[in-house]
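writing this on my phone so excuse typos. first protein, seq and then structure
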Amino acid sequence: MKGLFVKDLKLMSGQKKSVFLVFLIACMLMATNSAMFVGNYLMIFCSMLVISTISYDEFDNGNAFLFTLPISRKQYVREKYIFGLGVCMVVCFITTLVIVGYQSVVVEHYNWVEGIISSVSGIFVSGFLLSFMIPLQLKFGSEKGRQVLIGISGIIGVICFVAVGTAKKFDIAIDELSNWLDAIHPGAVAAGFVGVVLVMIVISYLISVRVMEKKEF
């Protein structure tokens, strides 16, 4: 599986211009007091880079050659998840150091603990994205996968809109629910969020393995 990691690193290194542009934008955002947004922004970008490696593998029927090598389809899928989360963790660690260091200098009485928590939350954003994007990309390819994702996002948006409208119609106290959530200890919220993301990644991995095992090249 080491060869797969090397391959994906080489593929990502070919996108130096895009990476430079994104990091330049991130620096501009941090300079305009939008530092807390920078972490999530970079995590989303890293997730997209990882997904792009699947597109490169599929280009010009490349998978047909790739699987003549001594790797299994399950190993291929596993590498994508490990590689994706690994890249995002490294970027998250570097970003957290830079953001917390910068904010500590420019902001008086900066709460660095809150800053670290906010920055590290980006890794869970990337885990959430990868759990959706990898199986869609493997199943439908680049163009159809993007369309399906937009469709799913639209459906979720409609459901949320209908849920809020229904709550208002039946006088369901949304503010009370919000206050109840605010009263929960942040550690419990973080633990619950981590658990949900981990479960999503495991389910996503199992789906992706099944998709790859049935796929024909």
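second protein below, same order as before
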Amino acid sequence: MPAMLEQITLQPQVRDLLLSTVAAGRATHAYLFSGPKGSGKLDVACAFAQALVCEDQGCGHCIDCKKALLRNHPDIRVVHPAGAQGYLIEQIREVVSDATRAPIQAKHKVFILEDVEQLGTSAANAFLKTLEEPSSRVTLILLTSRQESVLSTILSRCQVVAFRSVPEADLVAELVRRVGCQPSLARVAVNVSGGSLDLAETFCRSEELIDLRKSILKTLENLEASDDWMLLKAASALSAGGESILDDLKAQQAEELEVAGDFLGRGALKQMEAGHKRALTAMTRQLFRLRCSVVESWLRDVLLVKAGCNQLLINDDARQAILACAQSVSETGLLCACDAVTRCKSAMDYNVQLQICLDALLLEVREDLYGPHNSR
């Protein structure tokens, strides 16, 4: 049975629909998963993809299932917009070309495209033939939180699967069930993971990431008293967190390539290497955005204090510093700082170096909150 799909408890109607689809062997060529951010669309898409690439409907034990679970299967590709205005036509042409190639390891290929409301007319036109006449070995899963903005030419060619909004309390309870952690840690994890339960689970299980969050909160606490040199030094230290997760992924990929070298041709190996590179880039971006989300959650807490909602704080372990900050900053400055975090998150799509992003973010947030500082 499809092990990962069976574990989807937060979207029971979607889970039952996809389970019956897999059991009947009648998966269609294209799906549109539509629902609000934080509703678990990507997690469900990856679970569905696992069931599609597994020869036993997602047994949970074979090599295909294990790689899918680790988000490292060469025949499951996750794509997100790389341009300032959304998807680049070159991205879509690459997906179209890849969809014509045979699977590397499984008998099926799955493409998961995030934020497809950002598919412009040119990129969508390049994609239409693949949507209309895909290979029988290919399934496309498109994700959106704004279905009304998806081009009608795309929408009409997909089976729409609606996701409901999931209350934060349910997400926290699910994470506690999976990991066995304290609800306070689970709530923090949910809020810094961008709605991805998989990333939230990784956070809860990683002492390195938990310590990284504490370091970020300490840096924010000392923001007003820090000059430029102190902030740049802090940013350098914060850029190093999470390296063990990336190292583990690299080691796993190297082992897979060594094994695959005995039975795959040069072309298939190149495809696998490209898939590994994409997976490593995706994880690097996730960990970077997690840093930004910690800063964002702290700023949100300060705004809540200024609004008199002290009981809703996410970072309750930093309550005293948050209360002190709320006494000395303006709402306008806080909103400008939040906007700086949003811009910083998107910078990774342009391959801006992590260190440069963190340097600029800390300097800009400090100036937004406390005004210009003299450099040392």
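The first strand starts at residue 30 and ends at 34. thats all i got for now
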